[in-house]
Structure prediction request, 407 residues.
Amino acid sequence: MGKTVRKNQNHLAALRAGVINGASTNDPAGIATFMQVGSTTGFGLAWLVAIATPLVIAIEDMSARIGIVTRRGLNASIHSRFGETWAIIAGLIVLICNTATIGANITAVSEIMGAALQLRWEWLVIPVVLLISLLMVKGSYRSISKYLLILTASLLLYVIAIFNMPIDLAEIWQQLWPISLGDGSLLWLIAAVAILGTTITPNTIFWQATEEVEEQIRIKAMRQERRGVIIGFIYANLVALSVMLMASLVFGGSHLVSSASEAAQMLRPLAGNWAFGLFALGIIGSGFLGIPILAASTAYAGTEALNLPEGLNRKIKQARGFYILLIGSLVVGGLLVLTRIPPMIMLLYTQVLNGILTPILIVLMTIIANDKKIMGRHTNGWLTNLLAIVAVGLMILFGVWLITKLL
Prediction:
């Protein structure tokens, strides 16, 4: 009986890990990205979200498999397979991308809370950083993961809202087909890179393996793990498409949103005068879901690169380096408010950064997942390898295209 209970708990933990990680891609940065894409380019890039869905599922499943088989975080595996230099490079990519996204998310949450409380949002940055730091330092991994699972429900607001909007199916079909490959304009390229960067992120790639290790997921639960990844990322991308479609309908595909108050207009058909309150609830909920995962994955990647003690289940005295990186990423992210970049714009461009740097991590991870000495009989199949190659190819193609356009 005891073995059956433990087996069921392990299977549920594997399922939960995928759902939380998938939902975390729709943090304020993710929501803002799809909102800006819809408000500036319409619904014509929905095909890229559809293509990115199986790609991110294959990549996250690969990360989870590495975590389950090796019982180590992803950067620990990179350190073991490629050496300290590549582990530090991988850690720096995660640090740069995550800290920038943390800053954008903290700024967005503070702006929303400031508008709701009628205070200058800059005054709320320190309380937000302190609150999340306290949560991460005082809570164990298990208690934090349960809290994160509850917050995933806040994203349903955007799916529900779409059913309360006047939708012209013929108009939507016209935007979808024939597939828009864009005109190569700078705005279109930024939107494409941002979509890939917010769907396939350094944060979720590293966090997925970490979850499997912290939850002590066994190889026997690998099927449930894969199911959780599929559910989590399909759910996340349905939310993304809902936000993109709402923004397209409300703003007409030709308008860059610069403030949270303006963004809240998307929910007016659902909530009327309560639109801002509902939008605020969604952004704050997604922020308190995404920011802890961003900070924790940064700390895990950094300590694994340097072979330092790690883990949310350890006390501060047992893992000083881990908690210094965790809290440091939150503090540095909070300091990014000094850039004075409007939060809704800042959220978009951090995801463009993800889109440009993430392919390096995917290549390293794919090599590890194909190494029989590391993975045994759980190496990649041909389909996973194909999807990983397509993901890297797409991200490099759009990233290089964007860079050449900017030069």
Summary: The first helix runs from residue 2 to 24. The chain has 19 helices and no strands. The chain has one domain: 2-406.
